[in-house]
Design a protein that fits this description.
heterodimer; A: alpha+beta; B: mainly alpha; two-stranded antiparallel ribbon; about 0% strand
């Protein structure tokens, strides 16, 4: 059975809300990957910074002004 | 990620160079602007300068505080240029703009009871004004209250990209028009003959300083409320370090320029009502958290096309007009009763917004 990625849709929410939502999702997160949808550069920077500080790797795809961030556990916390 | 890379990331996270440089530039520029003529500890003050602009446009008739401050026009132009070069210049809105207007009104009233925005609070601390310490206590309290709301899920909702691209250009265009008139026909604006509004650095220097601070402010995301907020929420010092950089730069610059004067008595544009210094800034801090940024950050966001922040900025200008037309603003003598009532009402409005604004 494949694990479905958990998605956080934080498009249009101003900071720090995207970071709070990502952090809350990561706290419940056990395995697989977390997908975060964003549409602002500053939110992308902030969520990337949070993920990095918690030891997650981030893969960023840009599509039509929107960002899809895929967070995977890198090193353990 | 190797451990080396991780420690490098942490180092940059703790000491972000762009945020530090932006803070140092702002602090040093503020001290120099005072040396060149701006009022004491008022090299930059978003609240005071928007209030002066409201006066210059005749929206209030408080004669000592009327001047079309080039620093504000410069910040708008600088932030717009920086956003354009980074593809961040785009119109978006829809996150409760009317409420943001109202919060802007109260953020200004809180600022005018304390006598300064968060930037000026830091500048006052760096000039030796002990009264600002009470403002800082209130500011931290307001932010802490806002953080409780954020943790419980308070948000004014999503904003969306607007269809009409030119709407992002309105505020920068207004700033350019302001600069043009300031140069060719300064006489059309109301201008103070005495008082803080009559004290200013040469226009070109004010404008240039504003543009530089606007560029760096946009790029670094410097936010005086965000620094404390992110520390409380995420233990992130990323933005807080900018606030500390401003304090260090203005302190050193003031000492070097002979402008440091420690004490509580006779501080420029300040009063010694400790409780209301504190409660005024508490209101500013709480409004800033609900708005998603301090007065400086709202101005930057508005300059890059954020319509909700545009409403917050014009809420602040309206708040300044109300504060001076109806006797809410403090002066060196203290805080009028009407100002105290307005701060109380503002805090109540913030609590209601904090308790009711939820994403559905």
């Amino acid at each position: 059975m494949t694990i479905q990625p958990v998605t956080v849709d934080a498009r249009g929410l101003s900071c720090p809300v995207p970071v709070i939502k990502t952090k809350q999702a990561l706290e419940k997160f056990t395995e697989g990957e977390l997908v975060v949808l964003l549409d602002e550069e500053v939110a992308k920077e902030n969520v990337t910074r949070l993920a990095g500080s918690l030891g997650y790797t981030v893969q960023i795809t840009e599509k039509g002004g929107e960002f899809i961030l895929t967070l995977r556990r890198g090193r353990g916390k | 990620m190797t451990s080396d890379m991780l420690s490098k990331t942490n180092w940059k996270e703790n000491f972000p160079p762009l945020v530090i440089v932006s803070g140092l530039l702002l602090g040093a520029a503020a001290a120099i602007l005072v040396k060149l003529g701006n009022p004491g500890n008022m090299g930059f003050c978003i609240a005071c300068f928007e209030r002066d602009i409201a006066g210059a446009l005749g929206l209030h008739q408080a004669k000592p505080v009327q001047y079309l401050r080039p620093e504000i026009l410069g910040i708008v132009i600088g932030a717009a240029i920086a956003a354009l070069t980074r593809r961040e210049f785009a119109p978006r809105s829809g996150s409760a703009p009317v409420v943001k207007f109202l919060l802007g009104v109260f953020m200004m009233i809180g600022g005018l009871v304390f006598l300064g925005c968060p930037i000026r609070m830091v500048l006052r601390l760096g000039g030796g004004d002990g009264n600002a310490l009470f403002g800082l206590v209130g500011f931290i309290t307001g932010i802490a209250l806002g953080v409780i709301f954020l943790r419980k899920g308070t948000t004014l909702g999503r904003s969306y990209k607007e269809q009409y691209p030119l709407s992002a250009g309105v505020l920068p265009l207004l700033a350019v028009v302001g600069v043009v008139f300031l140069i060719i026909r300064p006489g059309i604006f109301f201008a103070s003959e005495k008082g803080p509004g009559s004290m200013y650095a040469p226009i070109w220097i004010s404008l240039t300083a504003g543009i530089i601070v606007g560029v760096f402010g946009q790029r670094s995301r410097l936010c005086f409320a965000g620094g404390l907020r992110d520390m409380m929420l995420f233990r992130s010092s990323h933005l807080l370090i900018g606030l500390i950089a401003v304090l260090i730069a203005v302190l050193i610059s003031n000492l070097a320029l002979g402008q440091f004067n420690a004490g509580f008595d006779g501080q420029p544009a300040a009063h010694q009502d400790y409780l209301w210094n504190s409660l005024g800034m508490m209101l500013v801090g709480l409004c800033a958290i609900l708005l998603g940024g301090c007065p400086f950050r709202q101005l930057i966001l508005a300059s890059q096309g954020n319509g909700d922040s545009f409403f917050a900025v014009f809420g602040m200008i309206t708040g300044a007009a109300l504060a001076h037309n109806f006797g809410l603003a403090a002066s060196g003598k203290g805080v009028p009763a009407a100002g105290m009532i307005a701060v109380g009402v503002g805090l109540l409005v913030c609590v209601i917004v904090g308790l009711t604004a939820r994403e559905n």
